[in-house]
């Protein structure tokens, strides 16, 4: 009887240890981003005096620099949110391809038979984090935190320009006309590849610069150089992705 009790105790302990090991098995997480293949310059329709002729200009990026920035920021944030996990940033996909991260989820559910999801499951991945473009009402605000100054809709990454908006620097009292606001409107999703549970975090963020003197006069678009525009976009990515990733892993 004692031998039977010991055997049962050992078996129970082994089963508990196995279950515990399975629970704590390190996650294998893939990250896919497609938000920075284009930048949209959205100009307030009622404004005049800008050297951009259309209300909306879509600029195709020559390379995946911005998506690489998203992948890097997400990888660093995942290293803190899930320190035991192994994280694999995926090659930036082509829009509309069968591995486009935008095709993974529809109506808050994983699309049945999705090529990317099936391939990752076969390779032993436990989770997939996607970064995709998000369309939402323009909520651009000035640096003083006042009410929204934006109009219309924004999506993905780009710059909102209002050449006619009059602003004042609260520190110096200097007045200027027009703003250019780099913005980031994206959704981050965490897909549990075992249960197909989907968690979503939405980012709608911007930074604002007032108009500046340049070759064409007071011009909001010229308030930032090309290098400054890219740095502003990367800063938005780094700050906001770092905040959103931990929320995906927070317990409900």
Binned strand content? 25-35%
Question: What is the number of helices?
Answer: 4
Most strands sheet? 10 strands, mixed
Query: How far apart, in Å, are the first and last alpha carbons?
Result: 45 Å
Given as residue ranges, the uncertain stretches (5+ residues, pLDDT < 50) are 1-24, 49-54
State the total count of DSSP E strands: 14
Q: Return the string of H and E elements.
A: HEEEHEEEHEEEEEEEEH
Helical fraction = 25-40%
Which structural class should the secondary elements be placed in?
alpha+beta
Inertia-based shape: elongated
Q: Mean pLDDT, as a whole number? A: 82
Domain count: the total is 1
Radius of gyration: 23 Å
Account of the protein in words:
With 252 residues, the protein is of the alpha+beta class. The protein has one domain (27-249). The chain is 28% helix and 35% strand. The protein contains 4 helices and 14 strands. The protein has helices at 2-23, 65-81, 115-122, 226-249, and strands at 28-34, 38-43, 56-60, 86-89, 105-106, 109-110, 127-133, 135-137, 153-168, 175-192, 198-206, 209-210, 212-214, 217-219. The strands form 3 sheets. Strands 1, 2, 3, 4, 7, 8, 9, 10, 11 and 12 form a 10-stranded mixed beta sheet that branches. A hairpin with a 2-residue loop joins strand 13 (212-214) and strand 14 (217-219). Helix 2 runs parallel beside helix 4 (226-249). The longest helix is centred in the last third of the chain and has 24 residues, at 226-249. It is elongated and about 60 Å long. Residues 1-24 and 49-54 have low confidence and may be disordered.
Q: How would you summarize what this structure contains?
A:
The chain has 252 residues and is α+β, with helices and mostly antiparallel strands.
